Design the sequence.
């Protein structure tokens, strides 16, 4: 989207700091006719595969986190809250509202996935502590439940199962899939192979089910603490110390809702 253009440098504001945002930035920094501002919800950049690996082995997490500034870009740490056709309102990490004008706006805010992706406003230290907390819970001897049949859910379930085996833990990993297969959209041979590999690692794959509640109201149990996970089928999984919702909970486009025509029915 664009507003009235300025005869000076065109100001481009990119909301988001993930892969898509940086692909745009990498192209635009080559131009001498623009100034770039990036709105970054956390004060670091985490590789997409950093979450699944860091949650399994906390010491690996920092290897996939970059805390250095993006070259050639002014960075504002905060979250977009609203937008007009010429300005963006950002709630900064300090809790203040800041208005930023633009000539062009790029929305690259992606989607939310609790625990697997950093939470808006989360610090580097808090993210590393989250990795360590999950790893401890997974290796504490309790059961682990991963919800989500996509690539992320399958990867995390396999990583956790291998981690438990290496640590000689007694816990069991359950992967809850809402549909009849793993990896929806992939060829049947790959779906079946994923199921076979998971089961060979000791993962219990539960199809056509959804998690509807946690008895403790927690996502990750404290070390030595266990809770119960209830499924919509009526089944319950007890002795759980870690629950990972490895599915997207929606796209991060709420801040665009007040701008007429910015979103379609799927957003």
Sequence:
């Amino acid at each position: 989207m664009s507003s009235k253009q300025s005869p000076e440098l065109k100001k481009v504001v990119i909301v988001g700091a993930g892969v898509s945002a940086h692909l745009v930035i990498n192209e635009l920094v080559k131009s001498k006719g623009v100034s770039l501002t990036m709105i970054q919800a956390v004060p670091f950049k985490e590789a997409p595969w950093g979450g699944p690996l860091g949650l399994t082995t906390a010491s690996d997490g920092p290897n996939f986190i970059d805390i250095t500034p993006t070259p050639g870009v002014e960075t504002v740490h905060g979250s977009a809250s609203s937008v007009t056709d010429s300005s963006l309102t950002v709630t900064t990490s300090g809790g203040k509202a800041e208005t930023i004008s633009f000539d062009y706006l790029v929305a690259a805010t992606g989607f939310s996935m609790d625990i697997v992706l950093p939470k808006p406003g989360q610090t580097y230290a808090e993210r590393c502590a989250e990795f360590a907390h999950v790893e401890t819970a997974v290796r504490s001897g309790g059961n682990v439940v991963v919800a989500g049949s996509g690539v992320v859910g399958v990867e995390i379930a396999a990583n956790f199962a291998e981690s438990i085996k290496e640590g000689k833990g007694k816990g069991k990993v359950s992967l809850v899939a809402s549909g009849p297969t793993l990896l929806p959209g992939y060829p049947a041979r790959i779906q079946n192979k994923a199921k076979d590999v998971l089961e060979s690692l000791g993962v219990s794959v539960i199809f056509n089910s959804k998690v509807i509640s946690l008895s403790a109201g927690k996502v990750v149990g404290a070390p030595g603490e266990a809770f119960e996970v209830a499924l919509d089928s009526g089944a319950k999984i007890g002795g759980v110390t870690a629950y990972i919702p490895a599915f997207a909970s929606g796209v991060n486009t709420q801040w665009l809702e007040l701008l007429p025509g910015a979103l379609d029915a799927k957003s």
About this structure: The CA atoms of residues 56 and 135 lie 6 Å apart. Residues 151-166 form the longest helix (16 residues). Helices lie at 19-28, 50-56, 124-138, 151-166, 188-200.
